[in-house]
Design brief:
The chain is α/β, with parallel strands linked by helices and about 220 residues long. It contains seven helices and seven strands, in the order ααβαβαββαβααββ. The protein has a seven-stranded mixed β-sheet, with helices on both faces. Bound molecules: S-adenosylmethionine. S-adenosylmethionine binds next to helix 3.
Length: about 220
């Protein structure tokens, strides 16, 4: 994949409108991202009704789910960043199925609903590993029986050399300051420990990966 020209990467964090504009302008251009999204769409249940999007950004993943699953009645899209939330609200203005809400994933997510799908795009790697683990357990508890968790993520590369190759391939020279990348194998183990089943890494391209799991069908009480 050709590198994208982003020699000047804003470093202000997700509350910085400049970083948000830079990010949202480039994400659709990354072919690897689009490939991961295609795989994510493949693992969605056939007729989900309730969807939770963790670290929704400008709402790109929620929009994809809505586009490909006409059965969806409610999307709860959560993010901490005011400029990202503004973009998500603009995107979904007038769409009564979508609720955009400010929230901090560093804090426990309490029982919100029984979701058929929980998606996350390139967000959970901003959390400490310990918090990733507890979040996976909370996700497992938020899922309806048979529900799916699909986490399209930035993951740790096996070696510094591989990581440098990954960054070069996406036109970056450094990670975001807040990145806390974890290995695929560790995250799959944390997802199993959280009670998710059918856990797998279904797609990977360098430092991007799609980690998926399901809520056990037989389990009826949460
Ligand atoms: C790389 S962007 C991804 C946005 C979007 N999900 C996507 O797929 O393009 C990371 C997002 O995670 C959000 N984020 C980072 N830390 C967060 C936290 N503690 N709580 C909620 N959202 C957070 C950022 O505000 C940002 O919108």
């Amino acid at each position: 994949m050709p590198a994208l020209d982003d020699a000047v990467t804003p470093t202000g964090g997700w509350s910085d409108p400049e970083q948000v504009a830079w990010y949202t302008e480039r994400i659709g251009k990354l072919e690897a991202r689009r490939a991961g999204e295609r795989m994510l769409l493949e693992v969605l249940p056939r007729a989900p009704r309730r969807v939770l999007d963790l670290g929704c950004g400008d709402g790109r993943l929620s929009a994809l789910v809505l586009e490909h699953r006409a059965t969806v009645e409610h999307v709860l899209a959560i993010d901490i960043s005011a400029p990202m939330l503004d973009l998500a609200r603009q995107r979904f203005a007038g769409d009564e199925r979508v609720q955009v809400q400010q929230g901090d994933l560093r804090e426990p997510i309490t029982r919100l609903d029984a979701f058929d799908v929980v998606v996350s795009g390139f967000a959970i790697h901003h959390l400490a590993d310990e918090r990733k683990q507890s979040l996976f357990a909370e996700v497992a508890r938020q899922l309806a029986p048979g529900g799916a968790f699909a986490n399209l993520e930035v993951v740790a590369s096996a070696t510094p050399e591989r990581h440098a190759e990954f960054l070069a391939a996406i036109g970056r020279t450094a990670d975001d300051a807040e990145d806390q990348l974890a290995a695929v194998e560790d995250q799959l183990e944390w997802m199993r420990e959280a009670g998710l089943t059918n856990v797998d890494c279904l797609w990977r391209w360098r430092g991007f990966a799609l980690l998926v799991g399901e809520s056990p069908v037989a389990e009826t009480t949460r």
